[in-house]
Amino acid sequence: MGVLRVLSVTMGRISTFRSYQIMLLFAAALAVVAFYYFGSEKQNFSSTTKRIKETQASHNTNRDDADLSIDIRSGHPESRTGAGDEPEGKPSRFHALMMFTKVDKSLNLLHKFQVAMRSVAKHGRFLEEEVLVLHYVSDAGSRELGEKMLPELLLDATFRYEVVFHDVGTLTEKLFPIVEAMQKHFSAGSGAYYSDAIFFLSVAMHRIMPKELKRIVQLDLDLKFRGNIRDLFQEFNHFPAEAVIGIAREMQPVYRHTFWQYRKENPKSRVGDPPPDGLPGFNSGVMLLNLDAMRHSTLYNQLLEPERVARLAEKYHFRGHLGDQDFFTMIGMEYRELFYPLSCGWNRQLCTWWREHGYGDVFQLYYRCDEPVHIYHGNCNTPIPDD
């Protein structure tokens, strides 16, 4: 009887509902049934929540990877070090220059060129957005030869590169007015190899190259790389505030000999003495030229003036024959702050000529290098060891 009474009351209440209220109740009932029925077949509330969390975790992981990639490849200080400071959005360019004249007329120079380029290709490693720009100062015949050979020599390179040829005649014409006065102090004489103005290119490159070119590495042809050339550009990071050039010391007693008169008159001077405490002079086989710093250095540009060169040459009784190397050595005796000393491993000179020409007793003091070798320099036609 109680059940019949409840049913009767319920039916009475339902009968008082309007038709649209009945429809709402019916729709709500269907929604509940659908949730439980279909959820049991596909995904319920818990699985949906889990999927959302997994998606968010995956998104966060990918975001972290992207940030790390940006930090390493774009934002890390080393990603642009030594490059030409290209405008944002353009590839970072690392500029290297070689003298490349008379190669078409000399099998010896041709062989050196092949060794150098193959070693650069073998050991060179750059980031994807970076470009190694290879500059060659050449005559017409050497340029034609270089254009034919470079694609094969750099075939195994894993990095992007560009090649730029500079006409030796055009550069010499621009250089001559700047370096004419110093040639008599640092050249072997009229018609000699180093008497040509082009062999003072590094001295005044900042004045004749476009201002957009801010840093460049100048390399001799008789080199063999044993490490990544990109690492050489990282040495620009270590330049002191006033330094404009990175260069390694001379590893023979060349300047002990050249400064003999000054040393005799100044027996307590360190000029020409061996490392670590002496001033043995520089070797120009590998040079880092901060062209931007050279342009802005009042001191360095004053030292290019003929009267300053003459005054220093007179003071040191200097008469050389090695072009830019002699100039840098002479001013380095007086103004060491202009130079950043490269490790001997970045220019491991192999020539031993002075050991057999009067300096055998002190030769090893200059020649010793305990640093890892990154570049061999086969100067004075010395054979370079195999890898």
Automatic annotation (TrEMBL):
User: Would you say which domain of life the source belongs to?
Assistant: Eukaryota
Coiled-coil intervals in this record? none
**Pfam families registered for this protein in UniProt:** Glyco_transf_8
Q: Does the keyword Protein transport apply?
A: no
Give positions of region: Disordered.
48-89
- Could you tell me where the Basic and acidic residues compositional bias lies? 51-66
Q: Where are the transmembrane segments?
A: 20-39
The cellular component terms of Gene Ontology attached to this UniProt record, alphabetical and capped at eight, are: endoplasmic reticulum membrane
What GO molecular function terms would the record report? xylosyl alpha-1,3-xylosyltransferase activity
Which Gene Ontology BP terms does the record give? protein O-linked glycosylation via N-acetyl-galactosamine
UniProt KW keywords: Membrane, Transmembrane, Transmembrane helix
- Gene3D superfamilies from the xrefs? Spore Coat Polysaccharide Biosynthesis Protein SpsA, Chain A
Keyword presence, Transmembrane: yes
Record-linked PANTHER family: XYLOSIDE XYLOSYLTRANSFERASE 1
The identity of this protein, by name, is: Xyloside xylosyltransferase 1
According to its UniProt entry, this protein's organism is: Onychostoma macrolepis
